[in-house]
Amino acid sequence: MQVNRVIAASLLQGSHTGDWPLSGYDPGHTSYVDAAVQARPIQGKVSWTQRPGSLFSSPIAGQGLVYIASTNGNLYALRQDSGAIVWHVHINSYLTDATPALEGKVLFVAEEGTTLAALNALTGERYWVAPLSEKIQAPPLVVGSRVLVASLTTLWSLDATSGRLLWKYHYGAVGWPTTAAPTVAGTTVYFGAGSSTRLWALNLLSGHVLWSFDTHDRITGAAIVQGQMLYVATWQGTIFALARATGALRWSYALNRGQQSVVDGVGGSMALADNRLYAGDYRGAIICLDAASGKLEWRYATGAQVLATPIIASARVYIGSDDGHFYALDMWTGRPAWRYATGAVRASAALAAGLLYVGSLNGTLYAFS
Length: 369
Prior knowledge:
The chain is mainly beta. It contains no helices and 33 strands.
């Protein structure tokens, strides 16, 4: 029988600069690591590999460990410097994105498909579990003492120390799975539900709706917030730039402009750095847009669809493709610096302690130095 325990507030502190604690790196999901943290480019040299099983979820890193969930139903904690397995627990979440989130010494992850659990990040021991009664396919987001998680039709706000429900926002009865983590900036949380085509802005403290914007399409990736702007992409290939405070449309870019039918879209999340947006698309390209105007800056074609999320560091774009390769591109020109045959990559990499961690469908976790 599971006995829930309240987590000491001190355990939710202690994250370090240079960790990769969340899907998308930060609460705004920019996936950008600045030069103060990572000054030199990662080269295509493998430091170590580990084989935890086929990987659909993204790694996160902190406390000297890398955490990743495998399609075999286990969550693994590995040493960042060697890949040695420190602990693993069975979370019974299969063929889904059970990407965890780290805050201090506490790890939050979806278990049994419909339950959020808080674990000791150093040992894997459970503190509490919170049954949410709906399928969870989106990574949780931790902001201070709150954990936010999107399930099929609901956004939940839980107390991080106890799992107690603070508020929930429910929309719709049925729909596509919600796969995007919520995004937070200031006291506002932004999310797209699988049961709706709308992007919602809610008050972080109360859950009250501030505004919504109808994309008229499925939202599969997390919204990105930086400064006064918000960016979101859709399944059928439209990228929107909105005013963060009001949801007013600033510009849109259609990947399918000039096409007679829908042939392209964005399946993963985007990244943002130095006023440029980066995304992968179904036709196998990695694109770069000017974030102020929506103008296409460059396009690099891989050999198959790109469902992974890019990360940006040291003037490079790091991203995997279904063509079986992981790429490092120049962020300004799109020219390739290197590529490595990893097998198909469906999720974001993580960058911590000078190493780039990449999970592949071939069952291998790679650490590039």
